[in-house]
Amino acid sequence: RKEVEQDPGPFNVPEGATVAFNCTYSNSASQSFFWYRQDCRKEPKLLMSVYSSGNEDGRFTAQLNRASQYISLLIRDSKLSDSATYLCVAITGGFKTIFGAGTRLFVKA
Amino acid sequence: DTEVTQTPKHLVMGMTNKKSLKCEQHMGHRAMYWYKQKAKKPPELMFVYSYEKLSINESVPSRFSPECPNSSLLNLHLHALQPEDSALYLCASSQDRQPNQPQHFGDGTRLSIL
Known about the structure:
The structure holds two protein chains of two kinds.
Chain A: E1 4-6, E2 11-14, E3 19-25, E4 32-38, E5 45-50, E6 55-57, E7 60-65, E8 70-75, E9 84-92, E10 96-99, E11 103-108
Chain B: E1 4-7, E2 10-13, E3 18-25, E4 31-37, E5 44-50, E6 53-57, E7 64-70, E8 73-79, E9 87-94, E10 104-105, E11 109-113
Parallel strand pairs in B: 2-11
Antiparallel strand pairs in B: 1-3, 3-8, 4-5, 4-9, 5-6, 7-8, 9-10, 9-11
C-alpha cells in the first residue's frame, strides 16, 4: 500500500464547476500536510497548508481529518488556469516528505 | 520567479562523465532537499540537509553524492550514472526553526544520460 494515495483522475470539469480531491495517508505519525500544484514540465508550487481546523484561500479550501487519515481539497468556481496536477504531501519527523501520485484536473471552457 | 535557483536547467551526460547539479537559496532556510522526478510520477525524496548536516538519505545509490557547503548552497555530484537516472532533479528548501514546514522548489535540472 502506498503511504499517500490519491485518485489519479483525470477530472474533466467545465469552467465554474466545483471539484473536490481526496487523499489518504497510511502513516499515523505524519505531522503536517500540504497541497501543491504542478503544471506540465514545471516545478511543484505550494498551494496551501492543510489543518484539522480547515484552511481557506479564496476559491480553495483544504481540510484534514486525522481520525480517518484523509486530506481534501475543494476548488470552487473552477477557472481554465486551474488545469494542473494537484499533489498531496505528508511530512513525518520534520523532513521525511511523501508525495501522492497526483490528481490531474482539466477545466474546459 | 522561483526563489530557489538551480543550475544547469538541462544536462546531457554520458555514463562515464562526472558532473554536478547546483542549488542556491537566499531565504534563510536551513533545510534543503534533493528530489528525483520521472515523467508522470511524483517527486521522490533523495536527500535532506538540516543546518548543513545530512539528515536523510533515502537509500540513494552512491553514484549520487550530495554536498552542502554552506546554508545557502546544495550540490549533487553525479558519477557513473545509468540511463534510468534520466529525470528531473528538483531542489527545495524550508525553514528549520519549526518542524514540518512547507518546501519551496526550484525549477529543476532536466538530466539525460546517454
